[in-house]
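Dear U.,

For the methods section draft, I wanted the exact inputs and outputs in one place so we can describe them consistently. I've listed the two proteins in the order they'll appear in the manuscript figures. Please don't edit the token lines directly; just add comments below if something needs changing.

First protein:
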Amino acid sequence: MAPIPKIRAEAVGKIFGEGADEFLAIDRIDLTVAPNEFVSIVGTSGCGKSTFLNMVGGLTEPTFGDILIDGKPVKGPGRDRGFVFQGYSLFEWMTVEGNILFALEKSRLSKPEKTELVRQFIHEVGLRGFEKSYPRQLSGGMRQRVAIARALVYKPSLLLMDEPFGALDAQTRGMMQELLLKVWEDHKVTVLFVTHDVEEAIFLADRVIVLASRPGRIKRELTVDLPRPRQFDIVTSPEFSQLKRGVLADIREETLKVMSLGDAG
């Protein structure tokens, strides 16, 4: 018997607005994500990447179609899903330790158990020694490490990430990508990752989903058949470059299509 998919989207669509202002943002996306799989979603701005992620997370409802997590319909946010956004979403008045501990507020764990979990995740994301620091005292990369630790500390089975490294400089971004892969490999969590960065999408993922624009549909699903664990120098390999050229060509085609629609309007 085949295992139940972690995520199954069946003919999912999203319409915004009403009447003359009605806009079909996403049209009949069918997607299956296996347990422990890392899937990246790329596409032009406005193609519905974040909208789809928010529907999987239960933050907004599909207009039509169904989304199932572990075979059960999504009825809103749940503790089986962790979110990491581009904005760090940290509480500025809480320390690193306090921000991560906040995610365990409704947990039935004892106080010592919570303290130990927080300590463990602070260590895993490389923030030992910064437990009592406040967000304003941290760099962008360090703040995002806190956000990742907070999303994982209550052990969700699915991690949803929306441009989490978009605001970081290139060097820090590369380090965060390698950190994310290590955490993913250690915890065997399923990841659905939205990004504009094609290189980032390929480096991280088992599979890359390219969305077409206006409305958002799956244009291509690309299996990333590169060995794991991955080091960042793999981006210079011929195999990586070939994958990257294919995805960039798809996105360029969609960008030109959007531009031509703008000219026609």
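Second protein (the one for the lower panel):
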Amino acid sequence: MTIRSTGGRVAAYAWFVFAVLNFVDLFAGVTGDPDYSATTFTIAFLLLLGCGIAYAVGLRPMIMGDDDALTVRNPLRDVRVPWAAVRGIEGKNAVTVRFAGPDGTELETRAWVHQTSPRAQAKAEARAQKQARKSQGPTLDLRGRTPTGFVAQQLNEMRDRHRPKTKSGAPDKAAAARTEAPARGTVTWSIPAVAALVVPLVAAIVTVVVSTLS
């Protein structure tokens, strides 16, 4: 199960195309003579910075669930949590995961993708309540009425499926015994994402400073 932002990816690729066309124009002189001045290189580094932002914000964010763990990838950090370490998944304004951190304390991460504004959440709940009144039945479960709620529901179902169980449905003590260390989630910085932002920014600043001093 992999969830990404379609709009974010489209915007990121659109920026990449825009940046490539500008690079060609700057250094090949499509609309004029090529110019290799400090200003040109500054503009080029700023375009690269924009590409770094497009990569970090548009392409990187993702929610992925596999047989072993849940992964939440945000612009600059990656969170990977074994299903046994997940303590709760909620989907309100954003998909929020509570889990046991590396030292055993409870941590929380909010997914970048599939965020819902409070106004959209309120409208979804109002629609669900209206449907419940019309059907004259019990109050409907409001989860799944927005994209964030639906994703949280799916992830909770995956968590329940991947918990070790015996044939009777009880927790598998043998499986738990084989795992001596308790399950823990990890939080790591994305080196490529940080580099994609820091390197062109520093290069642009250095170019401006050198051109000013020369």
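Candidate sentences for the figure legend, describing the second protein: Strands lie at 2-3, 62-65, 69-73, 77-82, 86-91, 95-100, 106-110, 186-189. The chain has six helices and eight strands.

Thanks,
Y.
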